[in-house]
């Protein structure tokens, strides 16, 4: 059924594997995926566990629907305490690796300890074994994937670190199936690298059967019908996430030189159409997905089409004009196993430090195409300028005097590179996100859309990104819904980047899968429970609802967002009230009781 009820525990200190039963109460309260990871961390992991300790667990978990016949449900979420932010971090990836793990009979993998030499894990249905991985050192993520599939079989799914992981870079990424970066990296790759686990190779042959198979498949019918004719689904098939580049630019959300400039002179080279027509492409997506939103260019070498973060980061923030160079920068990040957003932001930040004469040692100039590519190479090898860049923006801002005011981070995680001064709800999310300044915890893309989905429209019509009213309500709607999606494991790109799934439809799917009725209201409560435990974890590790000075106190002087700043105080007051948190943003005892969450000082910590 949907739950195996069983988790795989990997202890790298002793190079052993075992299984344990997931506590029934946690499973019932949080279900699967991100929800299960957050619940396990809150209930079972002592808060004083250091991020760089071997005892800091890395959890890799598919959603509840993983391994079922449903399309777009094969991804996973990796969770740990981040050595970058000090708080909880989630990294999400699409594909079929998570589905394979569920088909192998496990709801999650719990990894602790530190190996004395590099190892990789093979999970073959309900058998697990560790192997030496030294022969994989020095290979890129594509080469590792191909090597391990050649050794074990084409029906295995590979999750791996690249050269960046070998050097234990803070923002090294996990790469699934040689194609899907788990983003934001935020420390998940660094923790896996610190444990000296190079890869996890999975094969599962037992399809997970929903409790009510006919109802389950029928529950996707309204989504299928919408996908056939919805204009947003059509453009997502063509452009993927890059579609939002043009929309954000029109609202003033694409800014140049690390957010200094409202003007982006090279915008024509950054347009979604440009990347769609750059070369013949091979569209693909998650297994059986009717809205394939990833593309690779057809050529002599494997070249993935960049996502929005790479185009906005390398293109606008670093000032790169060449479409070909942006594509190459993104390709190298994938091969090295580097988070493209963190990489681009670190380079742009260093460029501004050089511009302001805070450093003369690293002469990186705006728009220096070869300099950017060389910096990515140096970063992956952790030499030269790469040694400085490997610190990440947060630690770099402590090196250069008074640079913290323009460091593009929130709670020490690099911000998603669309300017929060151009959209009030976007700013509220980056400031409050429990993992730090990344938009993936809610994905409120509606602010950039001219025609949002009907279930988000109000009597006032299209929500204005520059207005404050209603933004807290809409953000919380997105938070709760995406927490439910991540628990189910239904693709967030399908459901929120393209807005092709409504909460009522997700509740119907989960009801058929579990064999018990889950109402939209219960789904909302599930989402609120996940958000609340993540809030408690964030607060215990020093979270603050704010952003650096540039993005809250320095308005742009030109463009659609000129003279606008996020009104965080007004929005936060409303945001706290709706969540039923106190005036300081702390969940109240009454709220915890309503959501069946034990108060922080009553948790019975007992790691499996």
What does this structure look like?
There is one protein chain. Helices cover 40% and strands 12% of the residues. With 608 residues, it is of the alpha+beta class. The chain has three domains: 6-203, Aldehyde Ferredoxin Oxidoreductase,  A, domain 1, CATH 3.60.9; 254-414, Aldehyde Ferredoxin Oxidoreductase Protein, subunit A, domain 2 (Orthogonal Bundle); 422-602, Aldehyde Ferredoxin Oxidoreductase Protein, subunit A, domain 3, CATH 1.10.599.10. The chain has a six-stranded mixed sheet with strand order 2-1-6-3-4-5. A six-stranded mixed sheet has the order 8-7-12-9-10-11, with helices on both faces. A three-stranded antiparallel sheet has the order 13-14-15. Strand 10 (175-176) and strand 11 form a beta hairpin. The longest helix has 21 residues, at 520-540. The model has no long low-confidence stretch (mean pLDDT 95).
């Amino acid at each position: 059924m949907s739950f195996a009820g069983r988790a795989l525990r990997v202890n790298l200190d002793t190079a052993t594997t075992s299984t344990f039963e997931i506590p029934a109460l946690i499973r019932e309260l949080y279900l699967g995926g991100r929800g299960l990871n957050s619940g396990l961390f809150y209930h079972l992991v002592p808060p004083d566990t250091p991020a760089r300790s071997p005892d800091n667990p890395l959890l890799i978990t598919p959603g509840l629907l993983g391994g079922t016949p449903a399309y777009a449900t094969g991804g996973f979420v990796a969770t740990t305490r981040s050595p970058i932010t000090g708080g909880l971090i989630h990294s999400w990836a699409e594909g079929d690796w998570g589905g394979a793990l569920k088909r192998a009979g496990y709801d999650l993998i719990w990894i602790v300890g530190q190996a004395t030499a590099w190892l990789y894990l093979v999970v073959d249905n309900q058998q697990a074994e560790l192997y030496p991985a030294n022969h994989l050192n020095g290979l890129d993520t594509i080469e590792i994937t191909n090597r391990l599939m050649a050794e074990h079989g084409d029906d295995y799914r590979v999750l791996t670190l690249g050269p960046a992981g070998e050097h234990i870079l803070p923002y090294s990424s996990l790469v699934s199936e040689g194609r899907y970066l788990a983003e934001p990296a935020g420390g998940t790759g660094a923790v896996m690298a610190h444990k000296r686990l190079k890869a996890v190779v999975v094969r599962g042959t037992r399809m997970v059967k929903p409790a009510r198979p006919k109802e389950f498949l029928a529950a996707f019918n309204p989504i299928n019908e919408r996908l056939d004719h919805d204009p947003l689904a059509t453009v997502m098939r063509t452009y993927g996430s890059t579609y939002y580049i043009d929309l954000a630019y029109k609202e003033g959300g694409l800014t140049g030189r690390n957010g200094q400039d409202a003007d982006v002179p090279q915008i024509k080279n950054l347009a979604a159409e440009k990347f769609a027509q750059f070369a013949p492409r091979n569209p693909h997506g998650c297994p059986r997905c009717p809205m394939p939103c990833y593309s690779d260019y057809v050529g002599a070498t494997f070249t993935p089409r960049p996502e929005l973060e790479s185009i906005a980061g390398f293109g606008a923030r670093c000032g790169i004009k060449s479409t070909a160079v942006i594509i190459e920068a993104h390709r190298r990040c994938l091969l090295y196993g580097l988070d493209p957003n963190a990489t681009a932001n670190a380079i742009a930040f260093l460029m501004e430090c050089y511009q302001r004469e805070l450093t003369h040692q690293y002469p990186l100039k705006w728009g220096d195409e070869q300099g950017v590519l060389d910096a990515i190479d140096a970063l992956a090898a952790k030499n030269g300028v790469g040694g400085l860049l490997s610190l990440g923006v947060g630690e770099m801002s402590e090196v250069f005097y008074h640079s913290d005011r323009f460091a593009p981070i929130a709670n020490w995680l690099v911000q998603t590179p669309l300017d929060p001064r151009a959209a009030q709800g976007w700013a509220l999310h980056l400031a409050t996100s429990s993992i730090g300044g990344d938009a993936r915890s809610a994905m409120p893309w509606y602010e950039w859309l001219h025609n949002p989905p009907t279930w988000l429209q109000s009597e006032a019509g299209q929500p204005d990104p520059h207005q404050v009213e209603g933004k807290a309500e809409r953000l919380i709607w997105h938070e709760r819904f995406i927490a439910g999606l991540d628990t189910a494991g239904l693709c967030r790109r399908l459901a929120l980047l393209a807005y092709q799934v409504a909460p009522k439809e997700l509740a119907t799917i989960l009801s058929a899968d579990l064999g018990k009725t889950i109402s939209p209201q219960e789904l909302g409560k599930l989402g609120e429970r996940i958000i609340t435990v993540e809030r408690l974890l964030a607060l215990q590790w020093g979270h603050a609802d704010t952003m650096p000075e540039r993005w809250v106190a320095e308005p742009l002087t030109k463009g659609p967002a000129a003279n606008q700043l996020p009104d965080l105080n007004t929005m936060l007051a409303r945001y706290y009230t709706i969540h039923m948190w106190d005036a300081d943003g702390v969940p109240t005892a009454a709220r915890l009781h309503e959501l069946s969450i034990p108060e922080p000082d009553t948790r019975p910590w007992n790691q499996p």
